[in-house]
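Long-time lurker. I teach an intro course on protein structure, and each term I like to show students one example going from raw sequence to a predicted 3D structure in token notation. This year I'd like something fresh instead of my usual example. Would anyone be willing to generate the tokens for the chain below so I can use it in lecture? Attribution to the forum is fine with me.
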Amino acid sequence: MFTLLSNIAESGLSSWLLVLDNWADRTIKGSILGRLVRKPDRDVACDRDVSCNVSTILLFLSITILFSSLSLPQFANDRFGIGIIVLICFFIFVINSIVNKFSFEFNFIDFLLLLLICVSLVSTFSSYFLKESLMGLFKCFVFLIWYFVAKFTLQNSSNKVFTNLWIIVTITATITALIGIYQYVIGVEPLATWEDPNAETTYTRVYSTLGNPNLLAGYLIPILPIAIVLQFKNKLGWLFKIFSSAVILICLIFTGSRGAYLGLIVGFIFSVFVLLNYLINKVKEKNKTVLFFGLFFCFIVVIVGISFLFPVVFERISTIFTLREHSSNSYRVNVWLACLQMLRDNWLIGIGPGNNTFRLAYGLYMISGFDALAAYNIFLEFAIEFGVFGCILFVLIVLISFLKLHYLFWMKGNIYALGIFISLISLLTHGMFDTVFFRPQVFILFWFLLSSVDKIDKMGKIDKIESEAKKN
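-- Reply from a regular --
Happy to contribute to a lecture. Here you go:
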């Protein structure tokens, strides 16, 4: 009975999401922006082998360079450098879309994102710090442009291109993680004080090529679930796939980032829940008890193994709940209190986008001695910079993405949907306690995850078209 009701609910969700996407596609294409990109309707898959097209190869290479640049030390603090690479990708994308006559299919997430851009314009030109807000607005435009470049590139490419891009991301992250593990082995000196020596044991926190353990954790945490999912979806050697997942996980642990630990825990809980739900529906009734106790035993073994191999993990997690007794916690609480005051006075249209705008406004509210670069919570940050409407739009973008991924995994069986869901939930959990979410190394991966939602929604259609083309 429960399964029947669940299937009915899923069917209703599918219809509802399809209606929203079709409405958004018609609305955007009927606007001035839509007329600029409107093309004759055609199938999503290209009618020829675009891999042989020079402009397509250049576009693929430019995106590959972008992903490879995220972990380079030259761009650890140089946000403009990565922004320039994004603009180069956009320029090549425009040429490619003209040459190959790309199709443009919009969905409801795109519509919400365009509304968010409109809200950011209002927030910018209403800001007391117009110069800084304009710079922040430019950064927002650059990285939102990246979302549409990634979305339409994937939309007009084969499934193999999509998989290969994620393989490149995983290989780059594996190399970065190996450097981090090497730092832990040699006991690299910290570049700053990242822990409270009065509250916990001092130990090595790795930062690899990014110069900050929290940034390294923010970069690796959305890649880990995808690296695990790739084990089921491509022809790379199984030894390398297991190796890459293990290396990324170990390096994440060595970062000592408590926000990342929380993200890992939340992602792990969701993964176990999905696994249990999936297996319970597959096994016979008499085997369910054995399955439950088997999984429970495995869970205990994993916990004991982690506590034995990495005792610092539980020490770091335990300090999360000490609040004012830990300097890092006390600092965040003071920042949140000041940010809530900022939000109370600027709740409607916000203070304007950008970290420089935030710092100038925060100086009027901060508790003495507790300066901050950001709000240490992505939802609070969106509310402060763009107002309550900007925060609501961001929440809706995330919520619609989750609903689509839920449908794509449970109803269509797409394993990528599960990986992206776990990546997003882990990344957002981490972002609720840290400032690295808006750094290019993390922000670009976030928007690429969202752009991938539309791609996996169309994977079945592309597979069908490509198989029919091979037959002919």
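Some talking points for your students: Residues 270 and 361 are 38 Å apart (CA to CA). Confidence is low (pLDDT under 50) at residues 1-6, 40-52, 462-469.
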